[in-house]
Design goal:
With 211 residues, the chain is α/β, with parallel strands linked by helices. It folds into 2 domains: 8-118, Rossmann fold (3-Layer(aba) Sandwich), CATH 3.40.50; 128-199, Rossmann fold (3-Layer(aba) Sandwich), CATH 3.40.50. It is 30% helix and 16% strand. The chain contains 6 helices and 9 strands; from the N terminus they run βαββαβααβαβββαβ. α2 packs across α4 (102-118). The model is unreliable at 201-211 (pLDDT under 50). It holds the Pfam family BRCT_TopB1_SLF1. It is found in: Cytoplasm, Cytoskeleton, Microtubule organizing center, Centrosome; Nucleus.
Length: 211
């Protein structure tokens, strides 16, 4: 739970205009900072409409932030104060009658607890990453924000000093001039970020070896 001295910094994800407007109105009754942006910012609490692989959801998960249901805002506003987060966290209860896997449902809670207990700064803190994408790729900035939220080190493909652990490519596009410092590195598609955060058996997922 956020300490009494820490003001909650709130972001929302997945809500349509009407529902979002109603939640924002409730937020103004509570002591918090609301960040109304489509991009992930360094929030303390993300309120999510549903489990998803949006930029905000992935980034908050990778950073070990609280990811909560909308009832957290509704019930806190009714009480006139912020309530304890525990029972409102995505992953607190695992539903059986849903197409979401138990691993995906529990991911926000698992990562928050793992990062809190281990004192690791983020889910990707041991990663040294190169992003190989075409110029102007619209997803580049979003992927970069998710990686930065998880404290990955993002390296230039020209930097041969880096011991690269992950190379991300878009639709098998990779400029061949960058192969020197990437020899032996594993290549992954962008969706691997979601797989890594949400799937339990991640250590068994192999990247593509490029020699």
């Amino acid at each position: 739970m956020a300490s009494d001295g820490q003001k909650r910094i709130i972001q929302l994800t997945g809500f349509k205009k009407g529902e979002k407007k109603a939640l924002v109105k409730l937020l103004f009754k509570l002591d918090c900072v609301f960040l109304d942006t489509k991009k992930y910012r360094n929030c303390t609490h993300l309120i999510a409409k549903k489990l998803c692989k949006s930029e905000k959801f992935l980034a908050a998960c990778a950073a070990g932030k609280w990811i909560l249901t909308k009832e957290y805002i509704i019930n806190s506003a009714e009480s006139g104060r912020w309530l304890d987060e525990t029972t409102y966290e995505w992953g607190y209860e695992i539903e059986k009658d849903t197409h979401y896997s138990p691993q995906m449902q529990s991911a926000p809670k698992r990562w928050r607890e793992e990062l809190t207990h281990s004192s690791a700064p983020g889910a990707f803190h041991r990663w040294k990453v190169v992003l190989l994408v075409k110029e102007g790729d619209k997803r580049m900035a979003s992927i970069r924000r998710v990686l930065q939220a998880g404290k990955a080190t993002i390296c230039s493909s020209q930097n041969a000093e880096c011991n690269i652990t992950h190379v991300f490519i878009n639709n098998n596009f990779f400029p061949m001039q960058n192969t020197k410092c990437l020899a032996g590195a594993r290549y992954y598609p962008f969706q691997y970020l979601g797989d890594y955060l949400f799937e339990n058996e991640i250590q068994n997922i192999e990247g593509t070896q490029m020699n």
